[in-house]
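Hi V.,

You were right to ask for the full record rather than a summary. Here it is.
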Amino acid sequence: MSDKKQGFVPYANEADVVAVGKLMIENRLDRITISGDVDLTADKAGLAHARKLQALLGGIVATLEGMSLPAELPPPAVGEVDNPFN
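Predicted structure:
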């Protein structure tokens, strides 16, 4: 998993994952996947989570704004592989 020290460069690889609470932000070459949940509580921990999310989303928006974007991505190619257990 990557963290802020190493840097999360949106759309740069298929490996980086950042956790905010139980929320997972996964880097991909053509998308960022956000799954899970986080409580932004009215305390210092909630503020820290909110700031981390704000920084991550700000970086994602800035990266998207600097890209030449299609109107919509095509659906991913789906293929079949032989069952290795047969």
